[in-house]
Specification:
Number of helices: 4
Order of helices and strands: HEEHEHEHE
Radius of gyration: 17 Å
Distance between the termini: 36 Å
Oligomer: single chain
Number of strands: 5
Strand order of the largest sheet: 2-1-3-4-5
Helix content: 25-40%
Largest sheet: 5 strands, mixed
Shape: globular
């Protein structure tokens, strides 16, 4: 008899997004994204961080301050990283992301041809950037749905395990 209590595809891919987010070095917000095709095959993965070649120690991680002192002008969001990391076109795919996309990522999502977004957290729903994002996504026919139940990952690192 087969096991019945298995993850749904949505839970599975959101779990991958959470796992990817663990790669982010951002001290305050870790976001992961997974792009999946119509056959439930992973096309690409991304997380928020600095562009390739930009040192994690040289650029700021601060949330406060002007453009030069804060992270916001430097960090590539998880959604954009997933789009840019893809070895093939993502048109027609679904994006799983732990935090609802901002307006800048929404533009990239629309341009890339992604047709659906499954997200978990919408903590910035009242901000203008998120309202703009939702307006553009609706206008472009991109479906977005909130996943209300997903698997949270708990990772414990053991630096020097005893054998």
């Amino acid at each position: 008899m087969k096991r019945e209590n298995v993850l749904s595809w949505d839970e599975y891919f959101m779990g991958l997004a959470h796992l990817s987010a663990l790669r982010s070095k951002d001290p305050s917000t870790q976001v992961g994204a997974v792009i999946v095709d119509q056959n439930n095959k992973v096309v690409s993965i991304g997380y928020n961080g600095f562009p390739i070649g930009c040192s994690d120690d040289e650029f700021p991680w601060a949330r406060e301050g002007g453009m030069l002192e804060s992270k916001y002008a430097y960090v590539v969001h998880a959604e954009l990283n997933a789009i840019l990391n893809s070895a093939r076109p993502v048109s027609g795919c679904t994006l799983y992301v732990s935090l609802f996309p901002c307006n800048e990522c929404a533009k990239a999502i629309i341009q890339a041809g992604i047709k659906k977004i499954v997200y978990e957290c919408d903590k910035y729903a009242k901000t203008e950037a998120t309202q703009i994002s939702k307006r553009m996504l609706r206008s472009a026919g991109v479906e977005f749905v909130r996943l209300t139940h997903s698997v949270r990952l708990s990772v414990e690192r053991i630096e020097n395990p005893e054998e």
